[in-house]
Amino acid sequence: MEAYFIAIGIIALIYVILSLGLTLQYGLTGLINFGHVGFFAIGAYTSALLALKGVPLVLSFAAAAALAGLAAWPIGLVSLRLRDDYFAIVTLGFSEVVRIVITSERWLTNGVQGVPGIPRLYDSLGGSVAQLAVLVTVLAVTLVGVWIIRRIAGSPFGRLIEAIRDNEEAVQALGKDPARFKIQVLVVGAALAGIAGAFYAHYITYIVPDQFIPLVTFYVWMAIIMGGVGRVSGAIVGTAILMLFLEGSRFLRDIVPGVSEVDMASVRIGAVGLLLVLFIMYRPQGLMGDYTKR
Amino acid sequence: MFYAQLLVNGLVQGLVIGLAALSITLVFGIARFPNAATGDFMTFGAYSALSAHKVTGSIAMGGLAAIIATGVISLLAYLAVFRRLAERSVVALLVASIGIAFFIRAVLGVAFGHSQQVFQVPLSRPYVFGSVRITPLDLQLALVALAALALVFAILYLTPIGRQMRAVADNRDLARVSGIRPDRVMIALWLLAGSVAGVAGMMLGIKTIVTPEFGWEMLLPAFTAAILGGIGSPVGAVVAGLILGVVQEVSTPLVGFTYKIALAFIIMLAVLLIRPRGLFGRVEGAR
């Protein structure tokens, strides 16, 4: 039972890191990133493949963050000159292309068979101690992430990116270049997703392209919309609900007999869709959101 | 001559993309947001056609079912969700369309299962022109697509409601003060956009294998064609769909089968950077 809670805790914290990235990008800056899972995938594969080549995990994690951030840079350059809705389509397309590349380039990623045997963190400690150590590490990284986002939100930089979200023309009129700030935000958010991907790869120890479908992106969107867009507390509360939902749907299968795994996957997708629509319609500010404005 | 064959295959594929892009561009031009549920509307159309075909044994009835059922689903999505979000930001509509896409896919997955399904159409001898072979089925599909396109363009350019739709697309406020009732225009729009997506879904289903995900995978090429054609331009969407279909097929020997979708993405980026208003777009463009 303890092991189960530790496992849930690790996965939940990985989702928190993902939603922190999206909070920075969408919540604070208003960038509609529909391709978050692409950066998550880049982080996961980068760290996994490097670690299997014998690179120390500290370096492979750093490489995961760097490469994910680097991948966001050209996407930013290209598409930040576009309107919001086009940016959403381009990022969604980007994450699909990432998945196509990791599916096709078998020499590098082993294609649909995936990458097995990815080394665990703290493997030498063994068993439950190692698990606990992983949990503590992810928690520490998450807290650093929370601290960074809060620092950013309270800094002049944070006020500027929030101004970009609220009125981009006004920011331009004041002589600031919104594109530069947007690219920085995009890169930092993608690097966070890359770190989350690295933790995921080394925790699950086996990654295949099918784990990086757009649905993951919208799990994260669901979390921040439910929790309250633009708030760190919202990202955390939203992720907690998301985990309850994902784990709960697994227990539901044990209770209700005769439901196959593919059916359950359908029910899960349907519930995500329904929740997205309902929250957008009836509680756009989320559970922890600012109730004074819509 | 090998490429001539690919050209023919590409044209049929291009008609499917063109129809999907037409659905996207109509909604984008008039309701002003990129409808990410278009792909799953296509899937819905394919399953509707499949069911009707199984019951009646007639492809024509399948097509009719796809047109009606998908038109209705699309209208329901508008009445239940999009209409209530009309005054909100683009992101609200966009996220809601993703939600609807997931919901439709889930319902189809539970109702029809996840196994691959195919249309049982009789095999027939292809017509041979030199080294190019055209199957009667491809020819029929092309005719169906052309008929659907002719009907849509007739509605858009020859009927009062079509004129009103184009007026709203051009300038919503001006249309309103001219006495055009936005409600009627929107209902016509969503029926039309749904039906067109339904036909595209049925065609794709006949050409390939139907699964609950297969429409979603067409979303990127369809968006690319809509952008390449110029957002809001119905003619552009169809022309760009044909171009994209041919380019994808002809490039397959060079870049491989799996990179077809990636190619669409590259084309989308290139268009957005070099000519954001697309081939036939209005001057306001994508930026």
Give the averaged pLDDT of chain A, no decimals.
90
Report the span from N to C terminus of chain A: 42 Å
The number of domains of chain A is 1
Would you list the SSEs of chain B in sequence order as H and E?
A: HHHHEEHHHHHHH
What is the straight-line distance between the termini of chain B? Answer: 41 Å
Shape, per Cα inertia axes of chain A: globular
Regions of chain A with pLDDT < 50 over 5+ consecutive residues? none
Sheet bearing the most strands of chain A, described?
A: none
By DSSP, the count of extended strands of chain B is 2
What fraction strand of chain A? under 5%
Percentage of residues assigned to helices of chain B: over 70%
Radius of gyration of chain A: 19 Å
In spatial order, strands of the major sheet of chain B run 1-2
Number of strand segments of chain A:
0
Number of helices of chain A: 12
Biggest contact: A-B, 44 and 45 residues
Major beta-sheet overview of chain B: 2 strands, antiparallel
Q: Rg of chain B from C-alpha positions?
A: 18 Å
What series of H and E elements makes up the topology of chain A? HHHHHHHHHHHH
- Given the structure, what is the number of helices of chain B? 11
